[in-house]
Structures are given as structure tokens and as C-alpha cells.
Specification:
CATH architecture of the largest domain: 3-Layer(aba) Sandwich
Number of strands: 9
Structural class: alpha/beta
Mean pLDDT: 90
CATH topology of the largest domain: D-Maltodextrin-Binding Protein, domain 2
CATH superfamily of the largest domain: Periplasmic binding protein-like II
CATH class of the largest domain: Alpha Beta
Shape: globular
Helix content: 25-40%
Distance between the termini: 32 Å
Length: 351
């Protein structure tokens, strides 16, 4: 599964526009038995279809039309269609819901409209007060490591261990996981979200010295573990499971300094006639049954406290009270600073 979730709004590609034109409802029309929802494509869409789309269609006698749009593209679509929106539910992974809510592009969801609200961890429902949708999936960041090569690492700074030279991979900031990993390394080196120089400099120096490589996508990282003798990489919990399923002996650990995560939100679009149905769809994604399928199918941490994590997954994912300890960086600050960070990053990597 390709998981390159961009953090900044980019120009909408012609192919994405064409896809939406082919699959979306005609502007201004509506159907009480149809929803248009965005997905991230690939394995994510496959698993989400099995966990939510198919059972929701069957139970409610409705049709769900899926449009593959990454987060920044979805935001661009919403902004372009503000006077005549064509999507009912939009998923964001990089904090774009903050911008969308501020711009009046989202329909606020009253917690009372969500039957699963009482069972959610606090971080899942915090954004509702600001007009954002709830968090439906969380994948914590941490260190992926080859269990047959090294012992379980304990610190973000293990990425700079001299014993691992030429066996470390960092991820480009064009990938949201790369940004989150950089921010955690930055924090261990005295940096803040307003000053990312310590983190970017450390990674840049390691890359320029040949001690580490830079990958851009999830598939690039998988190839690096498989063919480039990579032993350690800051990345996401769910992708560790992807690598294991591909036959790689990879473990996942949360460093002692703590960690952050990628928060995927489900948002009802303002100005659509099917808001109630859209809210019901979002609520279904929050149900214990759907959340359990997210665990087994995608290795995401459940946001519903009633979701049961299978015994064979309990050592592989973070859940329960541990999730409340995750640091969540301000999405608005990440979005606002992203372009400057990428410029600073390119200067270091290309030097």
C-alpha cells in the first residue's frame, strides 16, 4: 500500500480531477441512498471497503462511491467546489481538517449524533468542538528494525548509532511519516515545532556522510529493507506489519522519549444533502466491529475502547491508555510551516 500522505495542499492533478468527474454525483443533485467518499487507494481502500463500505451498504441499502484522493488533493477539491460540493465524506491524514473546518468546508458533527462517542478515546473526539470530524484511525510512529540484525532500539537517537552506519533509512519530508519522524528526532535534540533545525541538521549530516539513505515512499522503504540492507528506520506502526506480511523480520518499538502518530479523520462535507447519512457512515467506522477490522487488516490502533485486540496483535500495536500518551503536534502549525521545512530539508540533503 502506498502511504504517501502529503501535508501541504498541492495543485490538483488532472488525473484526480478526471477520477472525481467520473465517479462523483452531479453537482447540486442528491440521492438519499448514495454517498461519495474519498479513500487513499491501494491496500487501505481494500481493507476499508471490507471493514466499513460493504457492511454499511448492506445494512443500510445504500451505495458508496469511492474516489481515490490523497489528503492535500481532497482539500484542494473541497476548496474548488465550495459553492457546489460533490463529495459527502472526506478522509484526511495530515491535519487538513483544521484548514477545511476553518474555511467552512465541513459540516460540524454533534457528538450526540455519534452512537459510539461515549466509547472513544479522548483524542478521537477532541476536534469535534472545532467543527472537524472524529479520528477514526491512528498509526503511531516509532522505530522499525530488523529483529535478525539488531536488538530492540530504545531511543530515537539510535538512528545515529555508529554501529548502524549505512543501515539506516530516513523518509523525505514530502511524506507525512517523514515529517513526523523528523519532529520526534528534533524534539530529542532540543528542537521545537518552531525550530526544526536540530532535527533536520542531524538527519542531513547523517545522509551526507553516507551513514543513512533517504526514501520517499512506503514502497521505497520496503525495497530498502528487502534489498539495501536497511536495519532501522523511523516510520509507522502499520507499515511494520506490512513488511512482516511481505516476509521481512521487522519489529516495531516506541522509543522511550515518547512518540507521535498519524491521525486519520473522517469528515462530513458542508453543503451536501446527505449529511445525516454521512454522519451515520462515519459513526459506523468508529464502531468496535469496524475498529477491530482496522486492527487485524491494517494494524491501526483502535480509537474505540470496546474494540478487542487479538492476542497475536497485542505485542504489535499500541492500544488503550498508551494512545493517550501520544504527542499530537498542532496540524495547523505543521501545515503552515511545511513549505519552509521542506526548503530547509532540501538544502541539507542536497548540500
Amino acid at each position: 500500500m502506498k502511504r504517501r500522505f502529503a501535508l501541504t495542499a498541492i495543485a490538483l492533478s488532472l488525473s484526480a480531477a478526471a477520477a472525481l468527474t467520473m465517479t462523483a454525483c452531479t453537482p447540486g443533485t442528491s440521492s438519499a441512498t448514495e454517498l461519495v467518499v474519498t479513500t487513499f487507494g491501494g491496500e487501505w481502500q481494500k481493507n476499508f471497503t471490507d471493514a466499513v463500505v460493504k457492511p454499511f451498504e448492506k445494512e443500510n441499502n445504500v451505495t458508496i462511491k469511492q474516489v481515490t484522493l490523497y489528503s492535500s488533493d481532497a482539500l484542494a477539491q473541497l476548496q474548488a467546489q465550495k459553492s457546489s460540493p460533490q463529495m459527502d465524506v472526506v478522509f484526511f491524514s495530515g491535519g487538513q481538517e483544521v484548514v477545511a473546518a476553518k474555511d467552512g468546508l465541513l459540516a460540524p458533527i454533534d457528538p450526540s449524533a455519534l452512537t459510539n462517542a461515549p466509547d472513544l478515546i479522548s483524542q478521537a473526539s477532541t476536534g469535534l468542538a472545532g467543527g472537524q470530524g472524529p479520528v477514526v484511525q491512528i498509526t503511531p510512529m516509532g522505530l522499525l528494525y530488523r529483529t535478525d540484525k539488531i536488538s530492540e532500539p530504545t531511543s530515537w537517537n539510535d538512528a545515529f548509532n555508529p554501529d548502524y552506519r549505512q543501515h539506516v533509512a530516513f523518509t523525505d519530508l514530502s511524506n507525512s511519516y517523514g515529517t513526523l519522524g523528523m519532529l520526534m528526532i528534533n524534539s530529542t535534540r532540543g528542537g521545537t515545532i518552531d525550530n526544526v533545525t536540530p532535527g533536520i541538521d542531524a538527519i542531513g549530516q547523517s545522509a551526507r556522510a553516507g551513514d543513512a539513505i533517504i526514501t520517499k515512499t512506503s514502497s521505497d522503504l520496503q525495497q530498502a529493507f528487502a534489498a539495501r540492507d536497511i536495519w532501522l528506520a523511523p516510520y509507522s506502526q502499520d507499515y511494520a506489519e506490512t513488511l512482516r506480511k511481505a516476509g521481512q523480520p521487522v519489529g516495531f518499538t516506541m522509543p522511550r522519549e515518547g512518540t507521535t502518530g498519524s491521525y486519520i479523520t473522517a469528515n462530513a462535507v458542508a453543503g451536501r444533502p446527505n449529511t445525516d447519512l454521512a454522519t451515520k457512515f462515519i459513526d459506523y467506522a468508529l464502531s468496535a466491529g469496524a475498529q477491530e477490522k482496522f486492527v487485524t487488516g491494517m494494524a491501526y490502533s483502535p480509537v474505540n475502547t470496546k474494540a478487542v485486540v487479538p492476542a497475536d496483535m497485542q505485542s504489535k500495536i499500541l492500544s488503550g491508555p498508551t494512545l493517550e500518551k501520544l504527542v499530537r503536534f498542532d496540524p495547523a502549525l505543521i501545515t503552515g510551516n511545511s513549505a519552509a521545512w521542506q526548503n530547509q530539508w532540501q538544502e541539507q540533503i542536497a548540500r
